[in-house]
Design a protein that fits this description.
Helices cover 39% and strands 14% of the residues. The chain contains 11 helices and 12 strands. Keywords: 2Fe-2S, Iron, Iron-sulfur, Metal-binding, Pyridoxal phosphate, Transferase.
């Protein structure tokens, strides 16, 4: 029996062979601790980490000293949000974010709210974009941080982070963006976009799981954050813990490939997405969630009227691997908070699926997926 077609690339991606190739020597031959400065095993690992830091920094217009390695985007988000709050609470205790953020942003904000911080959660328009006219008046004298993701993990919507960064910069407010879904897929430049903190991860762009990074601006203005892990003072005191050289090398290679192949990958995935959408929208009662064009090339999120959501996923699982939303919250029996924030009715939110087309999908798979989707929907509607 053949495996289902993998169309869940926003959840995670397979490691690209080119990424795996550069990682393998650091599991075996160059296995030293990058902090071991007295012998060649440590020097080799330290040199690889240094090269990787430079590659990642170049991809986003940063300086290598502004990159701190973490275990992934969730840790990077926590470090950014809680780190700024703890370091700058004397200046203000107000933070602004958006209702459609990943829970790795919303949950740290809720935690800070329990400690006495005030959190403003901005609504979004029906297409998932933040309303800039509501953002500007939400900024106050005691606002210390704004956190808005670059690309949404469920609906793929690309937020106007350049305009948001400018609004924050003009008011002396730190701007953080969760770029877990965006890095290597859209152009990012922390200088041009006035980004002060940026969270990154490897496993959404064909790199290994368990590694990410946080960009922390050190120039004009210098951002200070309080560490959330203590012990050893690694990463200039921001994140203690032995650096995972194989994963760091993999993160850098994945980002390097993403930037190099961005135009080619996006053009091909956009064509596949349009191919899929053209076929499934022929079904009555199928609606697109999110902005039709201002979204990731490989993202398609749809609601299907007249079917039960779990039955739809169960009916499709032998044909394709897709999800109903964030993999981090898929166990919860409740509609997507992203779709709810957009005003999608609960009945349709429950009956929504997310297709995540990736680098290795091909046109025949898309045709097979569309046929299986139509067959399953028609079967469920027939009762």
């Amino acid at each position: 029996m053949s495996k289902p077609i993998y169309l869940d690339a926003h959840s995670t991606t397979p490691v690209d062979d080119r990424v795996l190739e550069v990682m393998l020597p650091f599991f075996t031959e160059h296995f030293g601790n990058p902090a071991s400065t007295t012998h060649e095993y440590g020097w080799a690992a330290e040199s690889a980490v240094k090269r990787s830091r430079a590659i990642i920094a170049a991809a986003i217009g940063a300086d290598p000293t502004e990159i701190a390695f973490t275990s992934g985007a969730t840790e990077a988000n926590n470090l950014a949000i809680k780190g700024v709050a703890e370091a700058h609470h004397s200046r203000g205790r107000h933070i602004v974010t958006v209702a459609t953020e990943h829970n790795a942003v919303l949950d740290p904000c809720r935690y800070l709210e329990s400690l006495g911080f005030e959190i403003t959660i901005l609504p979004v328009l029906s297409d998932g974009l933040v309303d800039l006219e509501k953002l500007e008046p939400a900024l106050r004298d005691d606002t210390i941080l704004v956190s808005v993701m670059a690309a949404n993990n469920e609906i793929g919507v690309l937020q106007p982070i350049t305009q948001i960064g400018q609004l924050c910069h003009d008011r002396g407010i730190f701007f953080h963006t969760d770029a877990a879904q965006a890095i290597g897929k859209i152009p990012l430049n922390v200088q041009q976009q006035n980004i002060d903190l940026m969270s990154l991860t490897a496993h959404k762009i064909y790199g290994p799981k368990g590694i990410g990074a946080l960009y922390v601006r050190r120039r004009n203005p210098r951002v200070t954050i309080a560490p959330q892990l203590h012990g050893g003072g690694h990463e200039r005191g921001m994140r203690s813990g032995t650096l995972a050289a194989p994963q760091i090398v993999g993160l850098a290679k994945a980002i390097e490939l993403g930037v190099e192949l961005m135009v080619e990958d996006n053009a091909r995935m956009l064509a596949l997405r349009d191919q899929l959408w053209q076929q499934i929208q022929a079904l009555d009662g199928v609606s697109l969630n999110g902005h039709p064009t201002q979204r990731l090339a490989g993202n398609l999120n749809v609601s299907v009227a007249g079917v039960e959501g779990n039955a739809l996923l169960m009916g499709l699982r032998s044909a394709m691997a897709i999800s109903s939303g964030s993999a981090c919250t898929s166990a919860k029996i409740e509609p997507s908070h992203v779709l709810q924030a957009m005003g999608v009715a609960d009945e349709l939110a429950f009956a929504s699926v997310r297709f995540g087309i990736g680098r290795f999908n091909i046109a025949t798979e898309i045709d097979q997926a569309a046929q299986a989707f139509a067959s399953t929907v028609n079967h469920l509607r027939a009762g």
